[in-house]
Design a protein that fits this description.
Length: about 600
């Protein structure tokens, strides 16, 4: 029982995330790339076992046989060698060199990137200037120069291609390492006494591995092309051995007599590189955390609604806001993980309802759903109705958008993250006024609103930026913006959690006054029973996405029905209680 209070309320059924492989297959182009690649690579790997003629056996009498000739499915080349056998053996060589070069470049480049990014200062300067020198030469010319120095041959072509690709890896990894090595968890590892090598290997390397894999998947196709390029020029595979590039190079002379001799290896290079690039794109999408979390998915303006039916209104007819059976779930791969399940409550005009529960219990998701503000994707409203003055706002997105700010005002938890940092606070309030089309001078209206929310010298503060105000002042600006559209319902989501205790009391006073003055209905979200006791007529206790108890605040405080409510109430210290409170908490923990 104690563990449940400390644990953030997880949904009852743990959502099963689809595996990386399933995500990859869900991308059709990548799946196609995977199929083509597996077929090509499989045939190439099995080439020695297949009943094929010797790829190097010449038969001048049989030269330049066309496609589909007897015994030679793909015909023969200018020395009468079987093209199919040469193609499969050549693909083997091209793949091996391309993958080998990628691995060498990845290992060396990652090493350079790790050391440069973590050590910083002169080590970084020296290593990065060396990398810059490599990058100063045209790519393929540098590879040609290296092979010219080392001498022609497949292994030397591999080294050359690996060397010219080191800068790409080094720069990518260095950037990722710099970002990671300033993180607090790395500082914590350093403070725990770990040496630099151990920090690099155990803390930073796991974080940059996805970057390495993504970089590999996007370069491997290139490396195969470059190997083919060097072999085409006669600097890679040496006769009689063949790779795809050298086959293409030797076929040049017969291009007009027997085009299929060039066409076959050319098509194989195209299919191989294309399949690897498609597959690489898919791997990148699966591994890149930014793409995976859906930041590149365009968010919808209002939360997606997919419900089977519309429930009857639950509250009394006079309710200003009536929520019945609201359920919200988050899409995770193919599944829907419920976060809010069948929540119902009603608020009468001028009434204050406290929504209380530990963090993660679904309070914010419930409140945001009222105005369709939960981000979609991934959120979906899976059931229920939200009625404002009898009208179901979930019925249409345009209805929901029209009500935002006009009927429902919203005060967020941390005003520093909700205010625009580069715009003066007065302009932001004026903008809110303008959006809601109030008449008169925007500036005067904004100053009046700021004054009403207790900002002293509002006219002078108009041009201040958010960072120039204290936390309490910023929250007053947030409240002024919420009031700009003259809503009759105000939702305040933990409006004082980011503030210290004395400022908290003043902001709550302000909300209380506004409520009385304007007859505002207030939905106050908090995790503090003390706040509810001082502010609200009724209270709804939320736990793990469900409301477990509702009632008059005084009644719930005096006789909590649910054991969870009792624990929340006991977590509020009473003045003068001292040690007894600590002992009670120890009993709970
Ligand atoms: P709180 O009661 O602290 O305001 P929230 O309403 O923010 O809690 O979150 C409730 C639950 O909804 C969380 O435990 C989390 O599992 C889920 N949730 C919230 N936002 C997202 C999101 N963007 N993606 C997936 N799950 C989410
Ligand atoms: Mg919250």
């Amino acid at each position: 029982m104690n563990a449940t209070l400390a644990r953030p309320g997880a949904p009852a059924a743990p959502p099963s995330r689809p595996g990386a492989f399933e995500l990859l297959l869900a991308n059709r182009l990548s799946a196609l790339g995977l199929v083509v690649f597996v077929l090509l690579a499989g045939a190439a790997l099995l080439a020695p076992l297949l009943p094929l003629p010797d790829p190097d056996a010449t038969a001048p009498a049989n030269r330049l046989q066309p496609l589909l000739s007897v015994g030679h499915l793909l015909g023969t080349d200018h020395l009468g060698r079987d093209l199919l056998a040469r193609l499969l053996h050549g693909t083997r060589v091209s793949l091996a060199v391309g993958i080998g070069a990628t691995l060498v470049a990845a290992v060396l480049g990652t090493l350079v990137g790790l050391v440069a990014g973590y050590a910083g200062r002169w080590t970084d300067t020296v290593l990065m200037r060396l990398v810059d020198m490599l990058m100063a030469f045209p790519y393929i010319l540098l590879a040609l120069a290296i092979v010219a120095v080392l001498g022609p041959g497949l292994l030397n072509a591999l080294y050359a291609i690996a060397i010219v690709n080191i800068p790409f890896f080094a720069r990518n990894i260095r950037g990722a390492v710099i970002g990671l090595s300033r993180q607090p968890f790395v500082d914590a590892a350093r403070l725990s006494g770990k040496g630099p090598v151990s920090v690099l290997l155990t803390e930073i390397l796991p974080g940059v591995l996805p970057v390495v894999v993504v970089a590999m998947s996007s370069t491997i196709g290139w490396m195969i092309l470059e190997t083919a390029g060097l072999s085409f020029l006669g600097l890679g595979a040496q006769p009689p051995a063949a790779d795809l590039g050298s086959m293409l190079g030797q076929a040049r002379a017969q291009l007009f007599v027997a085009p299929h001799v060039a066409f076959v290896p050319g098509l194989a290079i195209f299919a191989l590189v294309m399949s690897i690039n498609l597959l690489g794109d898919g791997v990148r999408d699966v591994l890149d955390p930014r793409l995976r979390s859906g930041t590149l998915v365009r968010p919808q303006a209002v939360t997606e609604v997919r419900r089977a039916g519309v429930p009857e209104p639950g509250g009394a007819g006079a309710a200003r806001l009536d929520v019945s059976g609201l359920s919200v779930a988050f899409r995770s791969g193919g599944d829907l993980a419920p976060a809010v399940r069948g929540v119902s409550f009603a608020i009468a005009p001028g009434e204050c309802l406290g929504l209380i529960g530990e963090s993660g219990s679904g309070k914010s998701v419930t409140a945001l759903s009222l105005a369709g503000l939960v981000a979609s994707p991934p959120a979906v409203i899976t059931g229920g109705a939200v009625r404002l003055g009898g009208q179901d706002v979930l019925a249409s997105p345009s209805l929901m958008q029209a009500l935002r700010g006009r009927r429902i005002g919203y005060v967020f938890q941390d005003p520093l993250t909700t205010l625009h940092p580069l715009m003066s606070v007065g302009r932001q309030v004026a903008e809110a006024v303008a959006v809601h089309g109030a008449g008169g001078s925007m500036r005067d209206r904004a100053v009046a609103l700021m004054e009403r929310t207790g900002i002293r010298d509002a006219a002078a503060r108009f041009d201040a930026y958010p960072h120039e105000l204290s936390g309490g002042q910023r929250q007053r600006v947030g409240i002024a913006m919420a009031l700009a559209g003259e809503p009759d319902i105000l939702v305040a989501d933990e409006p004082t959690t980011a503030l210290d205790v004395t400022v908290q009391a003043r902001i709550l006073d302000l909300l209380r006054e506004l409520r009385r003055e304007r007859g505002l209905a207030l939905l106050l979200i908090t995790h503090d029973f003390g706040v509810v006791a001082g502010m609200c007529d009724r209270v709804a206790v939320m736990r793990r996405g469900e409301i477990v108890e509702t009632g008059e605040t005084r009644q719930v405080l005096a006789r909590p029905a649910h054991p969870y409510t009792r624990r929340l109430i006991e977590a509020v210290p009473r003045p003068g209680e001292g040690r007894a409170f600590l002992q009670r908490m120890r009993g709970l923990a």
